[in-house]
Design a protein that fits this description.
3 helices; alpha+beta
Amino acid sequence: MNDSYTTTFTVPSTAAEVTDAITDPRAWWMTDIAGDTRQVGDEFSFEVPGVHHSRLRVTDLIPGELVVWEVVDGKVEFVADQDEWTGTRIRFAISPTDDGTTVRFTHEGLRPTDECYDACSGAWNRYAGASLRDLLVTGTGQPSSNPDEVTFQETRAAAAEPANGPSGGVDRWACRGGDADQPGPPSGDPRCGAVGGAGRVSKGRTTSSTRRCWASASGGVPSSKVDRNS
């Protein structure tokens, strides 16, 4: 799946060392993972209460080459379709190089059109892109720091604040604009004020000719949309 989330890095480690680190996700992902993780057929799970639960199975393990986990059951509780992770596959392609080993991490099925993509890709940037790499380079990862939960809590707090817009009973406006997909109010739309830390609540994506302002009435789920051509 070419549009699935992917990140790649190279470390001065052997392919065997990389395999060993990947198959110890407690050292770089979640410290409270339950179950075995090192053999084909092993199943393991983790849970962030009220936010995310997943049960995964090791489907492929070729030392020095490939590790694949299938999400047998996943619940992402801060999006409308809570099964977005179920049936997806987490793939680590391992390639020896002159400088060490390159790891290409892909969450097959996690796509930009998914509602959880922003939060989940941000979490993978932290875990697969940084924590796993740091574990291999320095010997210490940063497991269990959960951007999904932080985003969820910030979104819920923003939704509970008094109305920011002048009318319509909207609790909070989350605005974006431009190709860079950065927070910012659409041109000439006074309803999109300063949103501070909640500026990335919405999942709207824009082109250079259109800016979208999403009204988020509760829980970070867009309840209405205003398009403005700039």
